[in-house]
Design goal:
The protein is an alpha+beta fold. It has one domain. The chain contains six helices and nine strands; from the N terminus they run ααββααβββββαβαβ. It has a three-stranded antiparallel beta sheet with strand order 2-1-3. Strands 4-5 form a two-stranded antiparallel ribbon. The longest helix is centred in the N-terminal third of the chain and has 10 residues.
Length: 204
C-alpha cells in the first residue's frame, strides 16, 4: 500500500468513519446566557434589564438600540420585540459574596471569575448560574429563584413588599402574551426559548 518500512496499515487508518458532531459546551452556553448581554454581547453590568421573554441586556445597549435602528441585524434580532423602554424591567439583583469578580493581582493581571455566579437568590442563596430557574417580579424588578417562590408563597415581594397584579388588570405586549400556551406563537423551537420561566399566570 506504499507504506515505508513494510508496515501494514490498520483498518482505522484506511476507512474513514462518519465525522463526529461537535457538541456545544453546556457550561460555556450557560456562561453566555447569564453573563453576557443578549444584544451587545458585552459582559453584563449594572443597570441590567430583562425583557418579557427573559433575555438579559445591559440597559445602555437597549437604549442605543432603540435610538439607532441600524444596528447589526444578527444582534438586533434578539431585541426586535422591544419597541420602547417600557418593554424591559430593570433588575434588582443580589450580589454573591463568594464571587471574586474581575479583581486583578499585583502584576496587573485580570480575570473574570466564571466558576461562580455574580448574583444569588436573596432568600435561599442559590447562585444565578443557569443551573437553577430564576424569576423576576415585573412590578419591582426583584429577582428570586423559582424554588424560593414555591417554598415561600406570598402575595407580596420578599424583598421590597410590592404587590403583584393579575394579567387581567394590566396591559401586556404581544411578546409577553407569547409566553403562555394560549397564544398563537406558543410552539417555539428550543433556540427561541428563553432561559427564564413564567412562574405563575400572574404578572408580578
Amino acid at each position: 500500500m506504499g507504506c515505508d518500512g513494510g508496515t501494514i496499515p490498520k483498518r482505522h487508518e484506511l476507512v474513514k468513519g462518519p465525522k463526529k458532531v461537535e457538541k456545544v459546551d453546556k457550561d460555556a452556553e450557560l456562561v453566555a446566557l447569564w453573563n453576557y448581554c443578549a444584544l451587545s454581547q458585552e459582559i453584563l453590568r449594572r443597570p441590567i434589564v430583562a425583557c418579557e421573554l427573559g433575555r438579559l441586556y445591559n440597559k445602555d445597549a437597549v437604549i442605543e438600540f432603540l435610538l439607532d435602528k441600524s444596528s447589526e441585524k444578527a444582534l438586533a434580532k434578539a431585541a426586535s420585540h422591544i419597541k420602547n423602554i417600557k418593554h424591559v424591567t430593570e433588575l434588582r439583583l443580589s450580589d454573591n459574596p463568594a464571587w471574586e469578580g474581575d479583581k486583578g493581582n499585583t502584576k496587573g493581571d485580570k480575570h473574570d471569575d466564571l466558576q461562580r455566579a455574580r448574583f444569588i437568590c436573596p432568600v435561599v442563596g442559590l447562585e444565578m448560574n443557569g443551573r437553577h430557574r430564576f424569576c423576576f417580579l415585573r412590578c419591582c424588578g426583584c429577582v428570586f429563584s423559582e424554588r424560593a417562590l414555591k417554598e415561600i408563597r406570598a402575595e407580596v415581594c420578599h424583598t421590597c413588599g410590592a404587590t403583584k397584579r393579575s394579567i387581567a388588570q394590566s396591559e401586556e405586549s404581544e411578546a409577553y402574551k407569547s409566553l403562555f400556551t394560549t397564544h398563537s406563537s406558543a410552539k417555539r423551537s428550543k433556540e427561541e426559548s428563553a432561559h427564564w420561566v413564567t412562574h405563575t399566570s400572574y404578572c408580578f
